[in-house]
Structures are given as C-alpha cells and as structure tokens.
Fold this protein.
Amino acid sequence: MMRDGYVARWQGREYQASPDGDDIRLYQPEPGEGFEEVRAGRYVRVLPASEIEDLAYVRTTCTWKGQPFIVLGEHDAWLRVEYTGGRWPVAEAMRLEVFDFGVYQGWAPAAEVTDLREQRV
C-alpha cells in the first residue's frame, strides 16, 4: 500500500488522520465505537490532539530512471509519481506532465521503480 498523508496512533493502533485545529480526525474503513459513517466504507472519529499518541506525515518515495520521486497513488501495474529533483530539463526529457509551476507528474510502470520506501516527515 502506498501512503501519502497524515497518520495518527491512538490506543496503540495507527489510523489515517487529518489535523483540524486542536482536534485530530481519525479514519477507518469499518464501523467502530465512537466512529461515525461519513460515506460507505469510511468512518471518522474526532479526538482532541492531546489524546493522540503520535501524529506524522507519511509519504512513499522511490527512484525511477535514476531520478527521485514521491508516489501519489497506484493503479494496476502503474504508480502515479511526482518528480522531486527540481530540474526542468530532466522532467521534460522524461515527458512528465506539468501539474503546476515546478511540479511534474507522470505514470511510471511499477516494474521500473526502485528504492520504494515509506518515510515519516
């Protein structure tokens, strides 16, 4: 599973999370005590930040064709990646899409990606 977002640990378990001022929203795919359904397969519980054991931003990084990327998502045998090398000529040569000023993204065949790892930032 490729992750790119906040995670929080509460009562020894890790959840997808979203900071909201002095509160933290915890998400899980199944019903649970204190969790409210926000849509099918998505439940949320809001807690004061003081009750959270740990909060971190997790992202998955990789190397593709010798260049550094973060992994934004996956579909079948492809990874949606964002170039983090900061060099326009490299992004252009790799035929990456200009997503925003200085932000270049593309689809990489998962079989060509190396150094896949999760980082807490």
About this structure: The chain has one helix and eleven strands. The longest strand covers residues 54-64.
